[in-house]
Structures are given as C-alpha cells and as structure tokens.
Write a structure and sequence with these properties.
alpha+beta, 35% helix
Amino acid sequence: MAGVINLPEPNKNGPISLEQAIASRRSRRSFLAKPVSLEQIGQLAWAAQGQDTKSKYRTVPSAGATYPLEVFVVTCDGLYHYLAKDHALSQLSYKDLRYELASAAYGQDFIATAPLTLIFAAQFTRTTGYYGKRGIRYVYMEAGHAGQNVSLQAEALGLGSVAVGAFDDDAVSKVLSLPNQLDPLYMLVIGYYQK
C-alpha cells in the first residue's frame, strides 16, 4: 500500500436540488481532458458508500447493514481503494490503468480518456452469509442504489457520468488486482463534458 489520502469533508448542501439533478441526469460518454479534483472524488466516493461518523450506517441502504460493496477509484494518477470508515483513499498503485480498464470493458475507449472511474466490487459472502442465496439479489440492489447516488452526485457537481456493466469480470479483476473474494459489478465513468 502506497499511502492513505484523507479526503475533504463531504458537502451536504449541494448547489442544485435533488429534483434538478434527477431531471438533468443523462448518460455521457464524451469527456473533456480536465481532471476532477480530490474534493470531487471524495464527494463521489462518499455518495457511493460514505459512512456516518456517529454510526456505522452509510449513504446507501444495505440489507442487514452487511455492506458488501468496496469502491475502487481509477484516475491517471493510479488506483485507490475508498476507506468508508475513514473517508480516505488508500493508494494501491501509481500506474495509469485507464487504458487497461477500457480494454477489459470490451474496448469502450471513453474509459481510457475519462478522468475518473469508480468501480464497485462486492464480497457476496458478507450478505449471503446472513441471508443465504437471497442475499445475491440484495447485493445487486445495493450496487444499483450506490450507482444512482453517484450519478446524481456527479450531476450536482457539474460532471457527466455513465454506468458501465459491459466488461469482462476476470479482466477487470486482473487490472485492479482484486482479491479472490471480490467480484467487480459496476463501473461509473465520470468527468467534465461539453455543455
């Protein structure tokens, strides 16, 4: 592990209303070559899996509060793991993995040039250990909740986003060096776009 980066405190009073974010949200695949800030990355990661400082609860519902999701962040500066409890990023690699990630996503080239991709990976046993086979459904539901949070948060920050589900699971796992117990489920590609 290369180091831990503490993120700025998340803003809980956004510049636009939730209704405005819902109305204007669109899938965007063409991004400007403008980096997103550390503050924006922190805000997006918090929207995905942020933890309340006074409790163990997070920003998305989770069956039995089992929290099977782990959030990974890919930028041109490397690969990071979001530490929900600490609202921090643990840098796992300094390598720009965006082109490899695009290749693992069947050549969706916008991933290679976008400034930011969040990847949700799940440890299913956290939920299935409690709910049995039914827990599989709950994990996918949680990923959907987290993805929608991130999409709406991106919109509120003036960023575009697109959800990506078309990728080779094994190839993404290899690019991210995921441990065997984590399965990649969902990518959100984010950046500034031409308005």
